[in-house]
Amino acid sequence: MFTFTNMVSMPIESVANVGRRERLDEMDWDEGDGGGQLGVVVPGETITSSIDFMRGHGTFADGEDVAATVAGTLQRVNKLLSVKPIRSRYNPEIGDLVVARIVDVQPKRWKVDANGRQDAVLMLSSVNLPGGIQRRKLESDELQMRLFFEEGDLLVAEVQAFFADGAMSLHTRSLRYGKLRNGQLVTVPPITIRRLKSHFCALDCGVDVILGVNGYVWVCKHVQENHQVGEEGFNAESVYSNKNDHIDASTRLAIVRISNILKVMSQYYVPITDAALNYAYRWIMDNGLEAKDVLKHDVAEALVKAINTRYR
Hints:
The protein has about 300 residues and is an alpha+beta fold. The chain is built from seven helices and 17 strands. It is about 25% helix and about 25% strand. A hairpin with a 6-residue loop joins strand 9 (about 110-115) and strand 10 (about 120-125). The chain is flat, with a radius of gyration of 24 Å.
C-alpha cells in the first residue's frame, strides 16, 4: 500500500536564483559599455526589466522583462542581449578552421561530419591534387577519389561557403590542410574553443594541437614548419598517405597527457587555448603526475582550479 506524507513546500525561487538575480540587477548596463560576456543564466531567469534592450537568440519576453530560454553565457552587443547555449551543435562561420571526418564518398564530392547540424560537403574541385598541381579536375580524378579521402579519414579544412540548404562547403586548398596522421582525436564542447590568431598550435612539450572551432581537436606529433607550408623538399603526395610516421615513446606520452588535459578541461568547461594547455602540462610535470593520474577526480579539480586561478 502506498502512503503519502506531507511535503514541505519549497520556495519557487531558490537562494542561488535570488543571488543570480541580484547579480544581474547590479550589472553595469551603462550605454558606454560596448558589450561582452556578462555571466551565466539559466532557463526562465530574468535578465533585465529595462525596455531599452533588444531580445536576441536565447531570450524571450516575459511580460515587461527579458528572460533566458536556455542555459548559457549572457552576451551583450550594444543594446542586443543574447544567450549562447552551453551545450549546442557547432554553428559555422565562413573562415572557420574545422577538424572533420569523411562519412561518404559521392560523385565529385565527399560528405563530411563536422559536428554541425548537418553533414558538410567537400567538393573535388576544392582539394589539392598530389604534387600541388593546379588544374581542372578530370574524370580520371573522380575515379581516384578514394585515393585522396575515403570513409573514416580525418582531415583539417576551412569553411568556404554555405549551400542553399545551409550545409557547409569546405576546402583544403592549402598545404597546411588535408588528411591528418600521427595523432589522436579529442572531442570537446565547441563553446570551450576560443578563437585564436592561429588554431595550429605548437606546444612546448613537442606536440602539435589543431583546435577545430567545431569542437574536434587533433593532438599529434610535431611537424616541422617547412613541411607544413610546402617549402623545397616537401613531398605533397604525403598529404594523402594513410601511413603514420614513427613516433617515439616520449612523444606518445606527451600526446596522451595533452589528450587527458583536454578531456578534463572540456568536462569542467574551461576555455581551451594554447597558453592554457602549456600551463596545464607544466603543472602536471611540476607535480610529478603520470598521464593516467590527470583523469582522477581530485587531480582534475586541482588542475582546473590552477588554470582558472592563472587565467581568471
